[in-house]
Design goal:
With about 475 residues, the protein is an alpha/beta fold. Helices cover about 25% and strands about 25% of the residues. The strands form 6 sheets. Strands 1-16-15-2-4-3 form a 6-stranded parallel sheet, sandwiched between helices. The protein has a 6-stranded mixed sheet with strand order 7-8-9-10-11-12, with helices on one face. Helix 3 packs across helix 4. About 35% of the residues are buried.
C-alpha cells in the first residue's frame, strides 16, 4: 500500500513525500515510467485530469523525469492561455518546483502603439537565462503558452554577443560606459527604478539592463571594478554580490532573429496542457485525446476530479455547523479507506483556524497533512487515493485569489507613473498602502535619513502614527476607493 511514509506529526508536507502514493495507481505508474519513450508521434497522454490537478500532474511528471536520470534537460510546460500559464507557474512552486515564466511576445499591431517594455525586458531576461542554463547542462522548467513556441525570439546566444560584460577586478572607463549606454537608448536618471535606466554617483554606477531580472550597482576604485551587486528597485538595497554582469547594448531587432523553438534541445521534454501542439511528447487533457468522452470503453483509471466537497461562500464554513459536519464525514470516509489527504494553507493563521473548527487533533495521526502554499482549488485522484484540499475554497477566499506574479509585474509597470498622480492627492484624502492598509494622506515632504534628505509621502494612521514612504516606493500607495 506504500502509505507508511507519512509521518505522525503536523509538520509541513513536502511534495516528494506524496510521490510514493502515486504508485497505488497502475495507470499513473505505467505512464510515468513511459516518459523516456515518449515522442511527438507517440506521446504519453494523461486523460481526464481536472484543471485544478494539472499542476500536480506536471510536478509528478517532473519528478519521474528526474528519477529517470534526466538531470540536464529543459522541461517545457505549454499552457493553453496566459491565465492557465500564471496558475501553473504559481502552483508548481507550491509543489516544490522553481519554474521560469516566459511572457508572450507582445506585437504592436496598431499605429502609434508599442509593446510593454517591462514585459519585453522580462522576456529577454528569461530567454537569456534559458540559454545560459542549457550551456551549463543543468535542469530547468519553463512555463509558456503553446502559441509561444512559434513566436519570434533572439537566436540563442545573441543577447550575450550584444552585451558588455563587466567583471570584478577588471578595468572600466566610466565615461566611455555611460556614453555607450546613452547610445544604446538608456536614460540617465538620479535614481534607477525601471529597465533602460542608469545613474552615476561618483565612482558608482547603477544600471538596469534591458534583459536583467535585477539592476546592478557597480562600484569602482579608481578605474578598477571593486564590487558588483544586484539590488532591489523599491528599497535600493543590495540583494546579493555577483562576480560578473552583462549590460545589453542593443535592444532593437533582437526579437526578430529566430524563434522560441530554437531553444529546444534534443533531450528536452515538452509537456502540453489542453493543446494539440505537434511538439508535445506528453499531453495532459481534461477529456480524451479524440474528444469523445462517451462510450463503454472509457478508461478513468488515474483520472483526476474536482474537489467533491465543492467550494464554500465566505463565512459559510465558519457559520454553518452542518457544512462542517459534512466535511468531517467526508474526511472520515477517506480515513477509513486509507486515503492520503493534503490540506493547503496560505497562512499559519488559516491552518490554526481550521484546526479549531474541525478537529484540533486532525494532524496528530498523520492522516491529514498540512501543505504551505496557495492553491485556488482542490482535487482528488481516486485511483491513487489522494485528496488535495485548499483553504481558499473552505474559507470562501477563492474570489480574492489573484496572481501574485501579475500583481508584482503591475507594480513595476506603475512605478514610473505613480509619483505624478500622488501629487494630485489632497491633504487628508484616504489612501491605501499595500502592506499597511488605509490611512490619511498628509502630503509630500522632505525627510532626513542616513545623512541625506529625500522626498517621502506622509501617511497618518490610528493614534497619530506616521508612515513615511520614499518616492521610489510610491507605487505601493493608491487612492482609497
Amino acid at each position: 500500500e506504500r502509505a507508511s511514509f507519512l509521518a505522525t506529526s503536523d509538520q509541513l508536507l513536502e511534495f516528494e513525500e506524496i510521490v510514493p502514493t502515486l504508485g497505488r495507481s497502475r495507470n499513473l505508474t505505467s505512464r510515468l515510467k513511459s516518459l523516456n519513450l515518449a515522442t511527438p508521434e507517440n506521446p504519453t497522454v494523461f486523460e481526464h485530469v481536472a484543471e485544478a490537478g494539472q499542476p500536480f500532474y506536471v510536478a509528478a511528471i517532473i519528478s519521474a523525469w528526474r528519477e529517470a536520470g534526466n538531470s540536464d534537460a529543459t522541461i517545457w510546460v505549454a499552457c493553453p492561455h496566459v491565465k492557465a500559464q500564471e496558475i501553473m507557474h504559481g502552483e508548481l512552486q507550491v509543489w516544490g518546483q522553481d519554474p521560469l515564466f516566459l511572457p508572450e511576445y507582445e506585437w504592436a499591431g496598431f499605429e502609434e502603439t508599442l509593446p510593454d517594455p517591462e514585459s519585453a525586458a522580462e522576456r529577454l531576461a528569461v530567454l537569456k537565462e534559458i540559454h545560459e542554463t542549457q550551456k551549463n547542462e543543468t535542469e530547468q522548467i519553463v512555463i509558456l503558452t503553446a502559441e509561444s513556441f512559434d513566436e519570434v525570439a533572439p537566436f540563442p546566444g545573441a543577447l550575450t554577443k550584444q552585451a558588455e560584460e563587466i567583471r570584478i577586478a577588471s578595468k572600466l572607463d566610466l565615461e566611455n560606459l555611460t556614453a555607450k549606454l546613452e547610445e544604446a537608448g538608456y536614460d540617465p536618471e538620479a535614481q534607477v527604478f525601471q529597465r533602460g535606466q542608469f545613474a552615476t554617483r561618483g565612482g558608482i554606477i547603477d544600471v538596469f539592463s534591458w534583459q536583467a531580472m535585477h539592476p546592478v550597482r557597480i562600484e569602482l576604485f579608481d578605474d578598477e571594478v571593486e564590487s558588483i551587486r544586484e539590488f532591489d528597485v523599491d528599497t535600493q538595497t543590495s540583494i546579493r554580490k555577483v562576480d560578473t554582469c552583462e549590460l545589453l547594448l542593443s535592444e532593437a531587432n533582437l526579437e526578430h532573429e529566430g524563434k522560441v523553438t530554437d531553444y529546444i534541445g534534443d533531450s528536452d521534454l515538452i509537456v502540453v496542457v489542453e493543446s494539440d501542439s505537434e511538439l508535445a511528447q506528453v499531453r495532459i487533457l481534461s477529456g480524451t485525446a479524440d474528444g469523445d468522452d462517451e462510450g463503454p470503453t472509457e478508461d478513468y483509471s488515474g483520472a483526476c476530479f474536482d474537489n467533491p466537497l465543492g467550494s464554500f461562500e465566505a463565512g459559510d464554513f465558519i457559520l454553518q455547523e452542518q457544512k462542517r459536519e459534512e466535511f468531517a464525514s467526508q474526511l472520515a470516509e477517506w480515513k477509513k479507506a486509507k486515503w492520503t489527504v493534503v490540506m493547503a494553507f496560505n497562512t499559519d493563521g488559516e491552518r490554526e483556524r481550521f484546526s479549531e473548527l474541525v478537529d484540533k487533533h486532525a494532524w496528530k495521526d498523520g492522516f491529514l497533512r498540512p501543505l504551505k502554499g496557495s492553491l485556488s482549488r482542490g482535487f482528488t485522484i481516486p485511483d491513487a487515493r489522494i485528496a488535495v484540499l485548499s483553504d481558499a475554497e473552505i474559507f470562501g477566499r477563492y474570489q480574492n485569489q489573484r496572481s501574485g506574479r501579475r500583481y508584482r509585474v503591475a507594480q513595476q509597470r506603475q512605478a514610473s507613473q505613480q509619483v505624478s498622480s500622488l501629487r494630485e492627492f489632497n491633504y487628508g484624502d484616504l489612501v491605501v498602502h499595500v502592506d499597511y492598509g488605509i490611512g490619511k494622506f498628509r502630503g509630500i515632504r522632505n525627510k532626513e535619513s542616513d545623512d541625506r534628505t529625500e522626498e517621502v509621502l506622509e501617511i497618518e494612521y490610528d493614534e497619530e502614527a506616521r508612515l513615511y514612504v520614499p518616492l521610489d516606493q510610491a507605487h505601493l500607495v493608491s487612492r482609497y476607493v
